[in-house]
Amino acid sequence: MNYKNLTPQENEYFAENELIQIIPNFKEDQFQFISGTFGPFRPAKPVTVPLWLAIYLKSRNKCSIQLPKWLDYSCLLTIKSIEKEIVAEFSPDLPYYYYEIATLLFNNCSDEFSGVGQQSSNLQKLKSVIEDIYEVRKEKLLKSIRSVKAEDTPIMNLSSIGAVELNQVRPAFSSAYSILYQMQNLMEQNADETQVV
Amino acid sequence: MNYSEDGGSPLQNDYGHQSSNTGGKAANKGGQNGNQKKNQFMTPADYLSREQDIYGGDLNGLEDMIDNSQDEERQIDSLNADHASSFFSQSFKNQLNQNQILTGFNMSDCTQNLQIKQLQQLLHNEKSSPELLPYQTILIDKVTKLINNQEQQLQAPVRDTDDRFFFNIHKMELERVKYMLKSYLRTRILKIERQVVYIIEKDLASLLSDPEMQYAWTLYENKKNYFQVAMFNKIPTTLNPFEKDQLEERMITVPNSSEFVFARFLKSHDVFHFTKDIEAKIDKDNIYFLPYSWIKESLQVGEAELV
Questions:
Q1: ipTM score here?
Q2: Helices and strands counted in chain B (H then E)
Q3: Which of A3, A56, A182 sits opposite B172 (nearest CB)?
Q4: Among B123, B137, B196, B207, which residue has the fewest nearby CB atoms (within 10 Å)?
Q5: Which domains are present in chain B?
Q6: Which fold has domain A1-66?
Q7: GO terms for CC (chain A) (predicted)?
Q8: Which of A33-42, A167-176, B171-180 has the highest average model confidence (pLDDT)?
Q9: How many CB pairs under 8 A join A and B?
Q10: Contact, B233 vs B209, CB < 8 A?
Q11: B206 contacts chain A (CB < 8 A)
Q12: How far is B288 from chain A (nearest CA, A)?
């Protein structure tokens, strides 16, 4: 078992720790958690809670979830076009766990996506645009990480890349570049030694 | 989604127990019996229950103590876990602001415990770094204490259905934090098992907690005994590297410190000197792909985190 790589499930766990806003329909005092205090809960008053709690309450019909600002069709379309335009960087308008958060929300509160005046296919449109962004960013990441020169300046700014993209390239590229870098160092050492001789 | 029912973590593999089993097998091979093994080293689970044992006798007094110390223990906005923490809390606030801008939510109505956020950062660092990082005694002890306090509070019987519902939520949260702590300890155990010869030979005890060091020693001794029985008894003593004062360098697997990692800088630098020839401009909150040895110092002072 490789401890280095995070599984998609682990990433989902971390994504569930991110905060989101809900509108509860019950009355309860503050939740005194180890990880913080949330609440008090009053009907129709927005409250910030971790995503896992929001999903749990939602599954019991105790609240409705407020979608984050970036999870919006027109907003995501803009991000997508920006992603296609800029080659070297990644749009900072998406959170690190954007893919996981979006998937969790799609799967657990699909009814929140069909708002007033929206077409019923809103959810499908959102899903496909998230997939598109993911594909575009994946291609860009592969391209830029391939251009890292282990022998010259082995550093690459990936700006605000997401967890899901990183997870794909981490195992292969991390070890491959380590070997390249070591070989480079060895070659330099050899070159130095021959110069001395 | 419901983690509370089975009391387990999102991922069911409990490596802490697995590794204790392998240790147990080795101990038996070395001719020690099971009872001795239990006293010799603690599994992460033992470690969790350690503090409970200490307070076990005096429950009433403990409850009073919890009431008084709860807010103090949670330390919502101030944190003195270690030297890097003030920087950490600052950078965490920045992250929160960034989060508010991204999501469009006003998050001022909740307070988060920075210790748990820091534990999450520790876990990420530990998972991605090739070397074993120093054990964060103060932080882990505090989190363990918080977990035990919460566990004590959740022992009261609940009858009301409505209360039961909220009780379950608290239990779920407790299990989530416990999972994170166990995951951190498991990652360390796995690393220790891989680098056990390096840790013992290079005397890196300062990086390990006491139970971890005990575990490493037992593992090392048992490995040595096993090699002795399986092979070295049959060949001349001069060929046995363990008989020498020190193992030869080439026989120790050294963690590869030039391994490439993904790291997020929490502080901007106009010019950051990685080596004497190479410098670069570092932007805050950006993720970089670079050799671990370059970021090691920033990592130690908490100005960067691995992802």
A1: 0.88
A2: 11, 6
A3: A56
A4: B137
A5: 15-254 (1.20.58.1030), 256-307 (3.40.5.60)
A6: Ribosomal Protein L9; domain 1 (3.40.5)
A7: GINS complex
A8: B171-180
A9: 174
A10: no
A11: no
A12: 5
